[in-house]
Structures are given as C-alpha cells and as structure tokens.
Amino acid sequence: MLAVALLTLTARVDRPTPLAADEKPPGTTVEVKIDNFSFVPAALTVRAGTTVRWVNHDDIPHNIVSSGTKDLKSPVLDTDETFDFTFKQPGEYLYFCGIHPRMTGKIVVQ
Amino acid sequence: MARQRRDGFSQTKDADGVDRRGFLKCMAWAGTGALLVVKGGVASSYSLSDAVGLAAAEAGELSFIQISDSHMGFDKAANPDVVATLQVAVDRINAAPLRPEFLLHTGDISHLSKSTEFDTVEQMLKGAKAGQEFYVPGEHDVLGDDGKQYLDRFGKGSAGGGWYSFNHKGVHFVGLVNVLNLKAGGLGALGADQLSWLENDVKALASSVPVVVFAHIPLWSVYPDWGWGTDDSAQALALLKRFGSVTVLNGHIHQTMQKVEGNVTFHTACSTAFPQPHPGAAPSPGPMKVPGDQLRSLLGLTSVKYVEGQHSLGIIDSSLA
Fold first, then answer.
1. Which of A40, B18, B191, B292 lies at a C-alpha separation of 20 to 30 Å from B146?
2. How far is A86 from chain B (nearest CA, A)?
3. With a cut of 0.85, is the ipTM above it?
4. From CA B286, how far away is CA A38, in angstroms rounded?
C-alpha cells in the first residue's frame, strides 16, 4: 500500500520541459519597457510564476489594461514609475494602454 | 474695412469652390495671427491690422476663445512650468480688445486627473475676463475612474459621459466626449449612446443654424498611427451633413491644423502646456522638447468670431510668444 502511494506520488511530480535560450526561470522578474508610446517587447513569453515589471520611460503617463479575458490592470504610471505583476496562471494576457489605446501588448504565460 | 491680401491667391478653384493652394497658405500663417475667414467653403485671409477693425463687438456678433490641453500637473522637460504658460494665455485673453463671451476648453485640462490640477485650471480660467467656461474631457481627465471625478466637477446638465449642447446667439454648440470606453488598438470613440443623443439633439434644428462641435480628440483622421482620430466620427458627421455651416473644434494634437470639407471646417488648437511633433516627424507623439526661447511660440490659443446671418466663423490662432 505504501509502495503504491509512493509510486503515485512520484508519477505526479512535474518534469518541466527545458527552458528556451532566452527564457528566465520562474521566480525572476522580466522587464517590459514603455518607450515612445510602445510596449517593448510587444509580445513576451514567460513561465508561470514569473513577475513582469513594466517601466514607463516616456514623459507621458501610460497604464496597462486587460483587453482579453484575463485580469490585468495597473494604476496610472507616470515617468519612471513601475508596475509588477506575477503571472501565476498560464494563458494569453492581451493588454493595451487605456489612455493611448493604439498601444497594445501581450504576455503569454506557459 | 479693406481686405488686404498678403499674397496672390491662385484663381483656380476646385469643384467644391475651395481654393486649396491659397487655403494652404492661410494655414501656414495661422500661427502668426492672420485672420482666416471661411465663408461658404471659400477661405479668405485678412492681415492682423485689418482684423483689429473686426474687434469691436457689434450686436449679433459672437466671439469666444478655444483653449486646450493645459495639462495642469505636467512638469517634465518639455515645459517645467505649465502654470506660467497657462497664465500667459489668460493674460492674452484679458489684453485683447474684444472680451470673449465664453471659453471652450477642448480637454486635457489636467495631466493626471488630480483634484488639485482641476482646481488650479478652473481658478486660473476664472481670472480670464470671459463670461463663462465650458469644458469637454481629454483622456488625461478621466484616468483611473472612467471620468467619475470629471463628471462630478464638470458634468452638471450633461448626459451620459458628459456630453451636452447649448445655444448662443443663434449658434448651436455641442460638446462631445470621445475619450471614454476606448478599445484596444482603437482611436477615440463616441459610442452608440452619444450618437443616439446627438441625432436627437440636432433633429429639430433648421439646417441654416450654424453648428459648432467641440471634442478633445480630432473628429477627422489626422494621423491614426498616433491615435489622432475617432473611430466613429463619420457617423456623427453624417448627422450634421445637412447643416449649412459646421465648425469642429478639437485639441489633443498640440498643434494647429485645419481642414475644410464641404460645409464642415475642422480646426485643432495648440496646447498651452507643451508642443507635440508634426505627424510622423518623430518616433511618437510625446511632448516635444524645444529650446526654452522657442517654447511659447509653439503654444497658443484660438479666437473664434461669428457674425450672425453670415454662416461664417473667423478663426484666429495666436501663439503665446
């Protein structure tokens, strides 16, 4: 009985696929720059558990607002202000700047 | 009053009667204080000395000021003192021979939708000797609360997101809001509720009534890549198509620009806070830093004059230099 339980426990341990060359391990912080009315990079893939930090380098405030089904919302960020969000749930997070809606981006969480 | 032409206008006219080459020359002069009068789709230019002759207020004349993009609270390199430059604009209004009947502020009153920022602009504009102040919000005025604070402060008598209309000396004024419920990847937006309200609002007006529409983001496609346009403005303009004289006053782009399309004259005003680059002339539409002694020449306000029964509005842009 104990052996079966141990076997089951072992079988349920995740074996993660190897990280791609440009991926950071979960638990790290990855930066998205807001520069010249753009999110840079506009598309970013991270592992669940990663924190993304947006940093506003423009002389104009911006924010991050979800445009998809996943919750994501920052306060208004003035110049040099930052917003951190730790992505625990996998999925595709589409967002835009609520003040300048032409600015769009996405975070893909694996 | 003699009409003094600064330059020879081409005699060729397009099918709609607009002398485009001459009109473009007028646009170049706008920043130096030339008086541009649009009458029946034809643009004529008057030198400023002649414009003084127009200064006396007569019965049946309406004169008002469009002021825009004060961005109270902005303090970055492009202009560390937006209070000072707004005060220059107020001083200009008070120094003019003609007292305006009211001020129209076409939005971005505040920079960060802060209560103190709204307070400061309201107080300063009350120092301008004008009868009344009317406002529409810019995207900087509705941050974080979908415009609730803006509405509490400026929304009395308005519908929905703060749109409204009023009549003055036979002219119908409509204040529209195109900075709420913006969609990802989109431009400015009026929305179905507001369009429905507008249809109802102008329904009973005779087509001979001059209409002035004011809203923050341009209601024509100035430069979509930079968000300089409104997704559903065509629907609003369709509702106004039957009117003999429509003037659309906008802000948002922090530079003067003008376009005539049939009976509709579109005009954008300068900011009193900081300039922005010409479309595509920079990587983005952010605040444009210029040498300190040039700043005021790129900021400005607009004086608008309507003479009853003429269906023409005179629009003068002047800088703060």
1. A40
2. 21
3. no
4. 11
